[in-house]
Write a structure and sequence with these properties.
It is found in: Cell projection, Cilium, Photoreceptor outer segment; Cytoplasm, Cytosol; Peroxisome membrane. It catalyses: ATP + H2O = ADP + phosphate + H(+). GO terms for molecular function: ATP binding; ATP hydrolysis activity. This is Peroxisomal ATPase PEX6. By secondary structure, this protein is an alpha/beta fold. The chain has 4 domains: about 120 residues, P-loop containing nucleotide triphosphate hydrolases (Rossmann fold), CATH 3.40.50; about 90 residues, Helicase, Ruva Protein, domain 3; about 170 residues, P-loop containing nucleotide triphosphate hydrolases (Rossmann fold, 3-Layer(aba) Sandwich); about 90 residues, Helicase, Ruva Protein, domain 3, CATH 1.10.8.60. Helices cover about 45% and strands about 10% of the residues. The chain is built from 19 helices and 10 strands. It has a 5-stranded parallel sheet, sandwiched between helices. It has a 3-stranded parallel sheet with strand order 1-2-3, with helices on one face. Helix 15 crosses helix 17 and helix 17 crosses helix 18. The protein is globular and about 90 Å long. The relative contact order is 0.07. Bound molecules: adenosine-5'-triphosphate. The site of adenosine-5'-triphosphate has 20 residues, from helix 11, helix 15 and helix 17.
Length: about 525
């Protein structure tokens, strides 16, 4: 693939300067330039032999071959794999020495040298002797919105796009995406377009040959196809250690919790809207939501991200813990790096207590958790220089957290998210959850709540509604079997569905647990 160097201006000017091209010229360039410069691409994995000698020989051959094409760029992909022994733990001194020598020894008689560019996504794994043999080090950050737009416009230049497709909008929705992600986005969108057209025009399916002809003829990719592809990619990403994504939870989806909403918005929205306040250096970047499970902590954080048009990176504490030495700390570092790349961003740490328990008490022999907590503290302290990344932590057990986490400048704002104990707040939640349902006119939400236990979390009310929905679905299926209803008619929930569900509803937080949470709340309110 051609890589447009203007996306990475620093790299662009260095390459042009070294290749002897006019310095400071403003036109855009490609890695494969028009001035008779070739790129000789070598995947370093293919250079790894069974023995040090074999690897050394392959490396030498690669350099000799590149020399034949000069002036050229020798692009060594994933250079960190060279100079590692076979189990990738220790270093292979022989290969490192050879590579260093090849990098440093250039034929001065050549007017245009072979320019060696090494690429890596793990700079910490590149042996120091190899790293220091390179003259320049260019860190390629995740592309900005403008660069993403420019990438999209180049990659879609030959694609027939629907009129309503806005590349600027797509660039805004793809914070944190890199070039590879855009290539995947395009192939997923084309596939979605193909599936859509086939389903519409050829419901019976196509023969293999007809399908090939159809694909060759081309078809327009619409905004909805990009939407499908983006959802697929975001889902795939979030299977790994979370990927930033702008959620679609509105305040209407959150019932009650007015006070908590206000506290969060004051902490996050105010500094974003009034950056002049930031210059005083008094802004918070961390907020801790605590309270019983299912009270809407995650939902609240998502709603804030949606309202402030921020990307949302959700990470569950245990997901970051890894058995390999140093990997857990690196996972923590990566989360913050991803968030910075997708700024403005909210990092939501769910189950924070499992990621940052009190140090010295976690009981793991290698002190892994202590190191993770220290890394997390360092990253939180570093947030003061990156103004657009906020951290929201959520936990059911704030008493288990390392106290250093709650010091000023870190998670210094604690907000209790409790269960709904009065019918008024329960009604607000029930109205929010049933907002998108089709209800029979006989449904009276207040009467339903009177039949429910006195103390309910948001998740309990959600369970009540999904149970009522199941009753309605069962009834509809029965009616359809009897020929009394059709699949296309809307699913309507009746009062009877809700009453059946209410009779079965068990509160998820017991009286005893509630008492414990109240004690915790009192303890932290007094701090
Ligand atoms: N205030 C609320 N308004 C509407 N729905 C709510 C509310 N609180 C909770 N819910 C519903 O309950 C579900 C679970 O809530 P959520 O995951 O936000 O709770 P949580 O406090 O983060 O739980 P946990 O501590 O177990 O992670 C939500 O998906 C939502 O459907």
């Amino acid at each position: 693939m051609l890589v447009r160097l203007s996306w990475w201006p620093e790299l662009y000017f260095k390459v042009r300067k070294i290749l002897g091209m006019v310095e400071g010229e403003q036109s855009e360039g490609y890695l494969v330039d028009t001035q008779n410069t070739s790129v000789y691409l070598v995947d370093c994995v293919s250079l790894c032999g069974d023995t040090s000698g074999a690897t050394e020989e392959k490396v030498q051959v690669a350099f000799t071959q590149a020399q034949q094409y000069h002036p050229c760029v020798l692009l060594l992909k994933d250079i960190e794999v060279l100079g590692r022994d076979r189990d990738r733990q220790g270093e292979d001194a022989r290969v490192i020495a050879t590579l260093r020598q090849l990098l440093l020894d250039r034929d001065p008689s050549l007017s245009h040298p072979v320019l060696v560019i090494g690429t890596t996504c793990k700079p910490q794994d590149v042996p120091t002797d190899v790293q220091t043999a390179f003259l320049h080090e260019v860190k390629i950050e995740a592309p900005s919105e403008e660069q993403r737009r420019s990438m999209l416009s180049m990659l879609t230049a030959s694609l027939p796009l629907g009129k309503e497709v806005s590349l600027s909008k797509l660039a805004r929705r793809t914070a944190g995406f890199v070039l590879g992600d855009f290539c995947a986005l395009l192939s997923h969108s084309s596939r979605a377009a193909c599936t859509r057209i086939q389903a519409l025009s050829f419901p019976g399916g196509l023969s293999e040959e007809a399908e090939r002809d159809f694909c060759t003829a081309g078809f327009p990719v619409l905004e909805e196809d990009f939407g499908v592809a983006l959802d697929q990619l975001h889902d795939a990403h979030s299977q790994a250690v979370g990927a930033p994504k702008i959620p679609s939870v509105s305040w209407q989806d959150v019932g009650g919790l007015q006070e908590v909403k206000k506290e969060i918005l004051d902490t996050i929205q105010l500094p974003l809207e009034h950056p002049e306040l930031l210059s005083l250096g008094l802004c918070r970047s961390g907020l801790l939501l605590y309270g019983p499970p299912g009270t809407g902590k995650t939902l609240l954080a998502k709603a804030v991200a949606t309202t402030c048009a921020m990307t949302f990176l959700s990470v569950k504490g245990p997901e970051l813990i890894n058995m390999y030495v140093g990997q857990s700390e690196e996972n923590v570092r990566n989360v913050f790096a991803r968030a910075r790349a997708a700024a403005p961003c909210i990092i939501f740490f769910d189950e924070l207590d499992s990621l940052a328990p009190s140090r010295g008490r976690s009981g793991d022999s290698g002190g892994v958790m202590d190191r993770v907590v220290s890394q997390l503290l360092a990253e939180l302290d570093g947030l003061h220089s990156t103004r657009e990344v906020f951290v929201i932590g959520a936990t059911n057990r704030p008493d288990l957290l390392d106290p250093a986490l709650l010091r000023p400048g870190r998670f210094d704002k604690l907000v209790y998210v409790g269960i709904n104990e009065d019918r008024e707040s329960q009604l607000q939640v029930l109205s929010a959850v049933t907002r998108k349902f089709k209800l029979d006119p006989s449904v009276n939400l207040t009467t339903i709540l009177e039949k429910c236990p006195a103390q309910l979390t948001g998740a309990d009310i959600y369970a009540l509604c999904s149970d009522a929905m199941m009753c309605a679905v069962k009834r509809k299926v029965e009616w359809m079997e009897e020929g009394l209803d059709t699949e296309s008619s809307a699913l309507i929930l009746t009062m009877e569905d809700f009453l059946q569900a209410a009779a079965r509803l068990q509160p998820s937080v017991s009286e005893q647990e509630l008492l414990r949470y109240r004690l915790i709340q009192q303890k932290f309110a007094a701090c």
